[in-house]
Amino acid sequence: MLANNNLKICHTLAWRDFKFHKAKNLLLAFAVVLITGLYAFTFLLGSSVENAYLLNYEYRYGSTSHILYHGLTAHQADKLAQHPNVKSTVRISALGQLSDEMMGVRSVKLAVTDQDYAESILSVPTTGRLPEKAGEIALDEFTMDSLGVLHELGAPVSVQWTDSKGGQHSTDFTLCGWWASPTNFTEACAWVTAECAAGLLTGYPDTASVTMGVDLHQPKELEQQAQQIMTDQGVNQVTYTTNLAYNEARREMASKEATPFYIPALVVLLCGFLMIYSIIHVALDQDTRFFAGLKTLGMTPRQIRWFLLEKAALLSLFGLVPGWLMGFGIQYLVTPRIVIGMEQNPAIYFLSWEPFALAALSTFGTVLLAYFLPAVRTGAMMPTQMLRNLDEWVPKGRRRSSTGKVSILRLALRSLWRNKGRTLLSLLSLLFALLLLCSTWIHYTSYDEGLYLNGMSPWDYTIEDGSAASTVQRYNPNNRAITEQIVSDLRERSEVLEVSVLKSKEVELTASDELRQRIVDFYNEPYDETMTRRESQAAYPDWCAGLDCLEQTGSYYGIVIALEDAYLRYVLDNCPVTSGDFDAEQFADGRYVVAAGAYVEGVSSPAAGETVELGGEQLAVLASVMGDTSFLSGSNSPESSFHLIYFVPLSLFDQLFPDEGIRQMAVNIDHGGQEEFEHYLGSYKRGLNRGIGVWMRSDYQEAFQNARLNKCLPKMIVGIVLMTIGLLNFANMLVTKTMVRKKEFAVYQSLGMTSRQLQWLLLTEGLLHAALLTVILLPVTFFVTWFGMPAVFSQLNTWCMTYHYTLAPLWAALPLMLLLAVAVPLMCCRFIEKGSITERLRIIV
Amino acid sequence: MEIVTVHQLKKYFGKGEAQVKALDGIDLSIEKGKFTAIIGASGSGKTTLLNMIGGLDTPDEGEVIVDGVSLSGLKEKELAVFRRGKVGFVYQNFNLVPTLTVKENILFSLSLAGSTPDQRFFADVIQQLRLEDRLNAYPHELSGGGQQRVAIARALIAKPAILLADEPTGNLDVKSGQNVLGLLKMSVETYHQTLIMITHNLEIAQMADRVLRMEDGRLKA
User: Fold this and answer.
1) Helix H segments across A697-754?
2) Do A669 and A707 reside in the same domain of the chain?
3) Count of CB contacts below 8 A, A vs B?
4) Exposed site from A13, A344, A471, A616, fewest CB < 10 Å?
5) Same domain as A432, residue A491
């Protein structure tokens, strides 16, 4: 008996199918390229977003090491490094910590240069080099700006530092290199040579504190492993931190954040299946006949399945490389718009093989599904049953009385009701695509850049002193990166409408008994049902100490802020008055201040009519306001954590505190000159030998565009894919309806229909199909979006949106559909007229 | 000796008022080694009967026994194996696999089972059917008669007990038709097979050992 299941013949059949049906398989290969490309793009983008979150956590941690052990001796470090779980280590010997009061809350180690460790904490100089001889030091830009160090190689650096035993030191160095480390807060280092360290710290290296970064073989459950390594090696009483990027909760969070970017893969699956299925469907009758024939000759269901599996595998294989390239190409262009803030293109930086492999597997699965479903449907059928089930159209319904005369239009109209399933499939995919695209486009265009820019920054540009470029830096008035000259230069530029300068000064003041009592009473009032306002600040010990000091001695810190123009307008617009009235003329007069306390209703500062002594001058309080200083760059000293604010005009400030530096500037420009102005600012910043921070209008615009794209891109991609599939389905429907009637058209021609009449018939059919779909798509899309979107919009609750209704995707899709309705039937004409009429009449249908 | 036994075979198509009785209680026995012709008008149930005997369709009622095997109890794979070995089909439209060469088409049933052909038998068959020079050609490169000769060779190669032919000469000109018929008769005689053939041609039917006439799903005497 011939009972074996030989699978080799399936291989031959699959290969020959490619050889003999080149056009169909080329079309299928194109579809596979498209599907692979979309899968690869989706997975690469999702992976990049996920990895970007992890990188961000790593940056926040400040090191690429899995575990950082602090305060080790060299012997302890050696022991920990020998643990079998440890893959590799990097280490530094720290002399102590920079302790200049201007360092604010930042913690910077003074450590001996180690290239590997520097790389692990992203602290390798990008300008200059690491120190090579005694007396040289390399710093990060934040530290330089906080200390007021010039951005010049060879610049003098005076450093105050504290060793591990609490000894205070002051050492002069020469700057040999620096780097930008905007997010590297926790593990900042100032590099010196070992030779220098030996001169600075008695008993070095034995007295130095070692910090060791450890990379593990298995970076999982870092906390347990860190503890385990210490226990196993008998090293106790050392502190350690673990990398946030390997924290399970963080990884889950990154995965959750990236999930929306992976979701389009489901749509690619659905659309890809529909696309392949609909292409296969064109030759369904032929294929069914083929399978029925194979079954007749004794092919088993398993052999048919294997044959389809091989076909799907070969097809997927053909499309893989171009699909991967296409996916990578799209992600190369799109990812930098979504993952921002990286110097290198994130598409390259996060490139890995896994998304490509996943895309290949998904493509194979999709193609297999499209091939298998019809096979499964017919698999259980007997060969003759398969042939009986072929999709032969039979007119149904009531017959109308007719003159018997047949016109082209009437013939074309009859075709509308054939293969209703395919028409419905095409209609539904187009409808879903249009609804998704229109709603996403309404969402996208409703984001209001003006609202966003106003919300993010009340002015076009903020230029801030380098020592106040981040909130963790303490403003150093001696840095003086912003000069009167640049203020003057800016004011003279034609595109500049307004330059507003802000200066500040911390002063020690003494409150009157009345003021002291008022403030103490204010903070002793209930914050909520469980605590007082004072108690609500328990997490801020410096603040609490400041209030205690005021209560006990009456002394407190005042922050005098000099304002003009844009800054003053901001205060007046955003700080509700709690006593008195603001009078612009009186304020400008130079004898008044505006006092600000907490941003809570009630007077928590000197009230209107009271006086305050600033810079030796008695000044009257014109009004008191709720203090909003969110526009202030950098931070103040930890001692002034509890403070009262006094807003004064710039002229008065200069009179009270002459020679104070400028903390920041707000600049408004004519937006027509934005490009020119930003070019000027860029040149200015590069030419400066001190650090400044510049927040450009284009930065906010870019952030707006990215945020908007971030919100809408996944849905937009899905919509575009769905629309492509919808249009392909539409074209495919026209092709199918035409090609399966080859014999019918031969009959028409045998009865005297000319080629031109046949072309008109097909063209009319195409246009009627387009018209039918338009008649349904247009009102449904309009009604759903017109009535549905306002409701969706009200749920979005986004502050930077203004509802904007548009049907642009529909207007773009309709001409495309019309084009296909004309082009596809005309192209089909060539194929259906191939061969003589008698040859075509012999076709088995 | 009976090689095919059909008992009370019924097959219906459609439902309700539109139901058609394709086979309406057929009882039939066919002797081994004989040439049986089935004639009848279109729609009389000839092809349905042939399909039932070949295991290509399942009856609604009744039983088909071929060479001692009852087809009603066979599973899909068993039916496939039955079709490979027990029967050879020859169709009016040839049903060749267009992507396979003549040789591959002839050996297809054996290939499905992973069997190697009896080389002498293969050589004998292709010589008898005059296909020696066309073994590497594709079906579309052959004439209608040539394609039908390939179909016959394919039907014979597994040495089946029965040859089922559904109007094998229907798509051929008179000369080719006569050739094919001669070949079929010769094969049956040479290899001791049973031939069951559907035909509209009374001249061909007269060459058969037995003629069965079908009308409205029933056998007429």
Assistant:
1) 697-739, 742-750
2) no
3) 97
4) A616
5) no
Cross-chain Cβ contact A297/B93 below 8 Å: no
More confident residue, A82 or A182: A82
Tokens of B216: 């409205």
CA distance linking residue A744 with residue A845, whole number of Å: 9
Per DSSP, A470 falls in state S
Which CA distances in Å does A347 have to A43, A46, A51, A721?
A: 12, 11, 11, 21
Q: Are residues A418 and A554 in the same domain?
A: no
**Are the beta carbons of B154 and A302 separated by less than 8 Å?**
no
Residues of B in contact with A290 (CB under 8 A): 97
- A844 and B93 within 8 Å at the Cβ level: the answer is yes
Count the Cβ atoms, other than its own, within 10 Å of residue A14: 20
Contact A463, A816 (CB under 8 A): no
Q: Which domain holds residue A238?
A: 64-242
Return d(Cα A115, Cα A92) in angstroms, integer: 10
Q: Model ipTM?
A: 0.71
> Which among A295, A380, A844 has the least Cβ separation from residue B80?
A295
Mark whether A17 and A72 lie in a shared domain.
no
**Alpha-carbon torsion, ordered A542, A543, A548, A551, to 10 deg:** 150
Q: Are residues A444 and A563 in the same domain?
A: no
Same domain (yes/no): A294, A198? no
Which CATH number is B34-59+72-210 given? 3.40.50.300
**Torsion angle, alpha carbons of A262, A268, A270, A275, to 10:** 180
Q: pLDDT for A24-57, tens place per residue?
A: 788 888 889 988 998 999 999 999 999 998 888 8
Please tell me the total count of domains within chain A. Answer: 4
CB contact under 8 A, B89 and A297: yes
Domain boundary residue among A341, A357, A392? Answer: A392
Other CB atoms within a 10 A radius of the CB of residue A681 amount to 18
What is the DSSP secondary-structure string of A130-153?
Answer: ---STTEEEEEHHHHHHHT--SST
Residues of A in contact with B77 (CB under 8 A): 300-302
pLDDT band with cut points at 50, 70 and 90 for residue A389: low
The tens digit of pLDDT for each residue in A188-223 reads 889 999 889 888 888 888 888 889 999 999 888 888
Per residue in A145-154, pLDDT (tens digit) is 888 898 899 9
